[in-house]
Predict the structure of CUB domain-containing protein.
Amino acid sequence: MKSYAAVRFLLIFMFPKPSDSLCASGKDVETLTSWRGKISSPGLLEGGYPNNQLCRWNIILPSALKIILTIENTDLQEPVNGSCSDYLQISTGNSTLVFTCGSRKTPQFVSTLETSVNVSFHSDENDEDNKGFRLTYTGICDGNISNSIVLFTPGYPNKPTWNMICLWFIEADQRIVMLQLEGLNKEIPACDQSPLELSNNTQQSRLCSSEEVLLHGQVKLKMTINNTIKRWIGKIHLTFRPPMSKF
């Protein structure tokens, strides 16, 4: 029991419990930019959702390489002749990731490489004794990189308020990589306090200024966010160039 309590405390410390985002009347679309959050149907805590609801949320996380959503449970009106009158829909652009109704007690996981996700909830005019739904979402900063890209600090343009580690694996393949840091120099007083670390199988170094380096094979770029390293807001412009190109 002690080990479970310790793990639970660590998870709460690293990933604070987000507040629910409910359907707000008078708002066409609610924009969510927090790195982590929860979305619930209206009336969930009161025992059921009202009729004639159209709730829409837009999750926008420009600093995430992936967004993961977990539909914890759904209790919506059952489909009639295969058609859903009350439904939950999750989409990105013109692509629908989830369109569901009825009841489901087991969690459903959805992931996308897009940085924006649309969530919609609709209920019709019929009275039904259904509770609704709740889902959680989180941005993921880990990933493999083989092309030029701009990386953001988690939660950009806001400072992250939780502890986490981002790991990016750069597939260099004997190419020159330009690492241009935007905003870091103003935030970090000394190089040994930089949250950025570049390493391979044989060596590692802190990044505290823009650098141009020749990398071989796979190189790990690590960003550590905790209470001992000053939190900062910024971008990492990562550009690949052929080894013989001139600058």
Q: What stands out?
A: The radius of gyration is 22 Å. The chain has a mean pLDDT of 81.
